[in-house]
Design goal:
53% of the residues lie in helices and 15% in strands. It has 294 residues and is α+β, with helices and mostly antiparallel strands. The protein folds into 2 domains: 136 residues, Butyryl-CoA Dehydrogenase, subunit A, domain 3; 120 residues, Nuclear Transport Factor 2, Chain: A. The chain has a 7-stranded mixed beta sheet with strand order 1-4-5-6-7-2-3. Helix 1 packs antiparallel against helix 2, helix 3 packs antiparallel against helix 6 and helix 6 packs across helix 8. It is globular and about 65 Å long.
């Protein structure tokens, strides 16, 4: 085995961790993969003979790439109005997908990723690296070009935002599934009252149709409005396939076996408080849904 192969083997040891960091930083699986690939390219071109902690070195590289990506997003012209839903991680309900389990080791649901999307790039980096991966502030500081105390303040500010906005789902997955099943049963039966009964009064539905389905990009608030929209799409209820979406009860809607949408549900105290639906054909095509195949 030559030096390049040995380096590649060492890199592979850290790949899953790096992808997990990048996903939480970016909320995009494709961009996370791009960040990891960029880390490999930089590693293969660098002299790392003096690097004692390769995992830490690679994490720093991925963090810098992600920070550049987040800043680039901020500099782009405003996108069309409508909801943006981060890439969901979809897996079987029996939890038989080790790679997805690694990505979601700390149950990072779509509700949390949605809140992370609202943070400034440096705040998001400081919070993710420190609070989720225990990276010390003296290592975060040079990445964001701040002092360790300033990096600590970034993370603290982000933490307050997250704690004030992130919805904490019920832990019991069985109960989550019962509520989601009741939602689709009511939609299938055209039962408006039953739909409202499983929805929190302040429920929020976000649907992201991308540029291909701009009409599907909406934000709907309130139990009555969400119930009405659910009845509009009741015809799709027979094509609902249960799945875990970011570790919580969700579904893949696949008429004719072709994914039409992925829906993640946040269930709190037995009520649906958030529904995040990805209906963008381009992004759906990029998702790894093979684990759901029978």
């Amino acid at each position: 085995m030559d030096e390049h192969d040995r380096l590649a083997d060492r890199f592979e040891v850290h790949r899953t961790h790096l992808r997990t960091v990048a996903y939480r930083m970016l909320g995009s699986l494709s961009q996370a993969d791009d960040a990891v690939q960029e880390a490999w390219l930089r590693l293969s071109r660098s002299d790392t003979s003096g690097v004692e902690n390769l995992g830490g070195w690679l994490t720093t590289v991925v963090a810098r790439v992600c920070l550049d990506t987040l800043r680039s997003r901020r500099s782009r012209p405003e996108e069309p109005l409508g909801a943006h839903v981060p890439d969901p991680i979809v897996s079987r309900e029996d939890g038989s997908d080790p790679e997805h389990e690694a990505l979601l080791a700390d149950s990072v649901g779509l509700a949390l990723i949605m809140v992370l999307e609202t943070l400034a790039p440096a705040e998001r980096l400081a919070f993710v690296l420190h609070d989720m991966f225990a990276v010390p502030f003296d290592e975060i500081a040079p990445i964001v070009a701040r002092s360790p105390d300033a990096a600590r303040q970034l993370a603290s500010r982000a933490r307050r935002r997250v704690q004030g906005a992130a919805t904490v789902p019920d832990i019991n997955l069985t109960r989550q599934r019962e509520v989601v099943d009741a939602f689709f049963a009511a939609a299938r039966d055209g039962d408006f009252e039953a739909l409202v009964a499983v929805l929190d009064p302040d429920v929020v539905l976000r649907s992201d149709g991308g540029v291909v389905r701009p009409g599907a990009s909406v934000v709907v608030r309130g139990a009555a409005a969400v119930a009405e929209r659910a009845l509009t799409f009741a015809r799709l209820s027979p094509f609902v396939r249960p799945a875990l979406v970011n570790g919580a009860a969700g579904v893949v809607v696949a008429p004719g076996g072709r994914p039409f949408s992925v829906m993640g549900f946040t269930v709190t105290r037995g009520k649906i408080v958030e529904i995040d639906a990805l209906a963008d054909p381009e992004r759906l095509h990029q998702l790894d849904l093979a684990a759901l195949d029978d």
